[in-house]
């Protein structure tokens, strides 16, 4: 299996979803068990190159560190919804997308495209438009305000 950034983002979504369903204790090494579980789920054994492991972990730890700000940003862009009403996968994809929009130099179009593809892979086609709309509004707001975190 060839590992790509897309694959690394898929792992990040799996980890964020697992964290949402079963939050780790403060100070707990929660990444190692996730890597073991992800490895067990793959059809063939995967040797994750260090750079992709770092890429994945940077995203997971970044979302965890900034979760209150990320959730507030998402919540402020949900029309007639609340964060806890969203599906777990949609919440994880939005959290990753918002973290990448606010805390990295990844171009917004790439962030949104990756998020839409991920939610389509893990969820339903209906979720594509929803995730696209929320992230697009956040990207435009950031651009208008020059909101560089």
Compile the SSE list and pairings.
Blueprint: H1 5-21, H2 31-41, H3 50-65, H4 67-75, H5 88-103, H6 108-122, H7 125-145
Helix pairs in contact: 1-3, 1-5, 3-5, 4-5, 5-6, 5-7, 6-7
Strand content: under 5%
- DSSP helical segment count: 7
Encode the helix/strand succession as letters: HHHHHHH
Number of domains: 1
Instruction: List low-pLDDT spans.
Output: none
Specify the structural class.
Answer: mainly alpha
The description of the largest β-sheet is: none
Which quaternary structure do these chains form?
single chain
CATH top level is Mainly Alpha
If classified by CATH, what would the architecture be? Answer: Orthogonal Bundle
CATH topology: N-utilizing Substance Protein B Homolog, Chain A
| CATH H level, superfamily name | NusB-like
Mean pLDDT over all positions: 91
Radius of gyration: 15 Å
Query: What's the end-to-end separation, in Å?
Result: 35 Å
What would you call the shape? Answer: globular
- What's the total count of β strands? 0
Q: Which bin fits the share of residues in helices? A: over 70%
């Amino acid at each position: 299996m060839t590992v790509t950034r897309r694959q690394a983002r898929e792992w990040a979504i799996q980890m964020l979803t697992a964290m949402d369903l079963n939050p780790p204790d403060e100070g707990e090494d929660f990444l190692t068990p996730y890597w073991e579980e992800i490895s067990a789920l793959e059809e063939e054994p995967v040797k994750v190159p260090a750079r992709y492991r770092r890429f994945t972990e940077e995203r997971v730890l970044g979302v965890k560190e900034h979760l209150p700000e990320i959730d507030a940003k998402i919540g402020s862009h949900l029309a007639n919804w609340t964060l806890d009403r969203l599906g777990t996968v949609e919440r994880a994809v939005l959290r990753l997308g918002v973290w990448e929009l606010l805390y990295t130099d990844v171009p917004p179009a790439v962030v949104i495209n990756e998020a839409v593809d991920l939610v389509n892979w893990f969820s339903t086609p209906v979720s594509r438009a929803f995730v696209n709309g929320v992230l697009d509004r956040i990207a435009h707001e950031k651009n208008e305000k020059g909101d560089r975190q």
